[in-house]
Every structure is written in structure tokens, then in C-alpha cells.
Amino acid sequence: MNTFLAGFGLGLSLIVAIGAQNAFILRAGLLRQHVFILCSVCAFSDALLIIAGVSGLGVLVSKAPFFLIFMKYAGSAFLFVYGLRSLLKSLKGGRVLLAEGEVTSLKDAVLVCLLLTWLNPHVYLDTVILLGIASTQYSENMYFAAGAIVSSFMFFYSLGFGAQFLSDFFKHPFSWRILDAIIGLIMWSIAFSLVYDS
Length: 198
Hints:
Elements: H1 2-15, H2 20-31, H3 35-62, H4 65-92, H5 106-118, H6 121-135, H7 141-162, H8 173-196
Helix pairs in contact: 1-6, 1-7, 2-3, 2-7, 2-8, 3-5, 3-6, 3-7, 4-8
């Protein structure tokens, strides 16, 4: 039980920080578009990465700097473009949380979600390497992995479906402009940090 709780606590502490993936899920939750599927994509992706890390891939990836360098620049470029789109939406404004709001196809939403997840080097550093190495302290490391996976599922579904409680606030167009500006700045800050903080 202690091993499970250790995995749960560390997993939750790593995922709770505001990042590109979380901002995307929050926005989808506010729009009530494909929430269950997008939360599932994030949670199952995390589960795969956690299992890989705990199974030993974390140690291997930490010894392959070329992989992280490639992911760093590819992820940075994608986040910069996505952030630019959000900032342009913020400047344009005029959207409210109503039926006539922006509609994104399931295919496009899942694609963006996958890119935000798998092109983010922080995912590999946190989920694969850090959790993978931390799990080596425990003889029953799969219990550690299970705790981290449960924390991921709990967090993403809570974020996606909990966003609806902010729906009254987002009936005002200016609220969307603020959210889009914040999302854009988060994407850009992560994009620049990937390139310049290493």
C-alpha cells in the first residue's frame, strides 16, 4: 500500500502543474467537446509511458540524449505554432460558451491531444525517466506504477469534467479572450524553455 501511495503522490505532483496538455483538456472541458475521449487519450498515454519507465525504459532513455534533443526541438516548434493560434484567437475574440462556439472534429482534437502528449519532452523526463528511476527504490515497482497511473486517470477526468463548473464565467466573450491568451502564453513559455533552459 505504501508503494502504491508513493507512486500516486509522485505521479500527481508531476502532472498537476499547468502545462500544454492540461490547458488543452481544460479548454475541451469548457467547450464540452470530446471530453471523455480526450481525457482517455491523455490518461492511457500516461499509463503506457509510466509502464515503460517502470519496466526499465526510463534508464535507457536517460542514456540516449539524441532522442531528447529531437523531441525538444520538435515539441518546441509545435507548441510555438499552437500558442500562436491561441494568441490570435485571443486578439480576435467574440466567442462565447454557447452552441455556436467553435466546433473541433474528433479526429482533429485527438490528433492535437496526441501531439501535445507525445511531442513534449517533459513527458519523457517526468513520466518515463523520473518515475522510472524512482520506482527502482521499491521491490514491488508495479504497485508504484499503478499508483502513478491511478493519479493520472483521476487528474485528467477531474480536470476535463470539472471544467463545466466554470461554464457560467465562460459565457462572456472576454473570459475566452483571457483563457486563450493564458493558453497561448503557457504554450510559448514551455516552447522557449525547452530550447533555452538546457
